[in-house]
Each structure stands twice: as structure tokens, then as C-alpha cells.
What we know:
Blueprint: H1 4-9, E1 17-20, E2 24-28, E3 38-42, H2 54-74, E4 79-83, E5 94-99, H3 115-126
Antiparallel strand pairs: 1-2, 2-3, 3-5, 4-5
The protein binds adenosine monophosphate (AMP).
Amino acid sequence: MSSIFTKIIEGEIPCYKIAEDEDFFAFLDINPNAVGHTLCVPKKEVDKLLDLDEETYSGLMNFARKVGIALEAAIPCKRVGMTVIGLEVPHVHVHLIPLQKMANATFQEKVSLSKDEFEEVAARIKSHL
Ligand code: AMP
């Protein structure tokens, strides 16, 4: 069965899309640690980061770098943090999180956004790509 992220990539499940190229896809996390929390995903469905082939691993990091630079320009923050966990969704994804404080990186505090707010944030990030 396809992962929830493959369903997002294939348009079967909606998302707030940020960027896409031939091999990678970025969209807003639906339960964000902070405004602008973005996930970068390889289209190739692999569970664990370290199981990616070298080319996909490097490509994912380069893609996340481009998205992260746009995120840092779009969302006021001290810096953009990058983390990989994967305990919830078994399809590799890089979390890009605008950080103001350590709590934004811990997945303990969450922010709640309306559909309009998600759309506005996605548009703001995309305008810096
Ligand atoms: P983890 O697998 O622990 O790295 O966490 C998975 C992340 O995916 C969590 O931060 C979720 O909020 C996020 N997530 C799960 N389902 C969706 C979805 N349909 N759209 C956007 N983000 C999602």
C-alpha cells in the first residue's frame, strides 16, 4: 500500500504544496511545530533515510537546502532547523522548522493554523523560491 506521502505526491490527498521537481516534493506539515514547518520528501518511497541510495540522499539534501533558504527568507525566525525522524510516517521526509526557541524543535509544542493561514504561508514561502 502507498504511503500517505505518496498519496499526497500523486494528488490523491490534498496538501499545501511548496515545491516539486522530478524527484522531490515539499509541502507544509499539517500539524506544525511552528509556522512554516515544511516537509521535503523523495518521490521514491523508501522508509528510512539511511536506506536511500547516495544520489537520492544528496538530491534530497540539495532540494531541502533550496526550500530551506526560501523558508528562512519568508518566515521571521532565528534560523531554520532540519531534522529527520520518521517514527510516524514510513516514507523518508526532512522536517524544515523555523526556530525561535528550542521548543520549536522538540515536537512538544504545536501551532494551529486555519486553511487560509496555511495557504498564505505556503504562498509566502513559494514567493521566495
Ligand atoms: P515523523 O514520521 O515522526 O517524522 O512525523 C511525520 C510528520 O508528518 C508529522 O509532523 C505530521 O504532522 C506530518 N503529517 C502526517 N500526515 C500529514 C499530512 N497528511 N499532511 C502534512 N503533514 C502530515
